[in-house]
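Hello everyone,

My group is preparing for a crystallization screen and wants a predicted model to guide construct design. The compound we'll soak is zinc ion. Before spending weeks at the bench, it would help to have a computed complex in hand. I've included the protein sequence and the ligand's SMILES below. Output in structure-token form would be ideal because that's what our pipeline reads.
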Amino acid sequence: MTDTMTDVIDFKALVAAAMAVRRHAYAPYSHYHVGAALLTPSGQIFVGANVENAAYPQGSCAEACAIGTMVANGARRLRAVAVIGSGPDLCTPCGGCRQRLFEFGSVETPIAIAAADGSFEIVTLGALLPRAFGPNHLPLGHLPPGHLPSGHLPDAPLA
Ligand SMILES: [Zn+2]
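Reply:
Good plan to model first. Here are the tokens for the complex, ready for your pipeline.
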């Protein structure tokens, strides 16, 4: 990761956005509240919180919630990510969410992993998901109409 990749990103603001949405997490079972904030290349920020369910497997991660909101608003690319959890440990995306993020990011996408007090470290998605499987592994014909491989997805709604 080079300085030019991260020096224009306000990670403190991105972590603050994740911290703010974490207050709305619905986690009555684990009591582990998570907030995620996604920054797009155009400067938009989309947030999400974890949503648990009495039928445990039906719960959703904060990152999945934020990705859904991003896509619903027509954005397709990640510039940076912040994830914040409960307690003193830095909150890293779960394995499934690393894959979800890679769909719209790259090995170079910086991710701020934060503790509940807002302290954070920055890692790359490539460090979290080495040798990732992604859209580039699939022939274009297998992608939905209008889609291009990761790294080429438009940041605007598709026609
Ligand atoms: Zn997850």
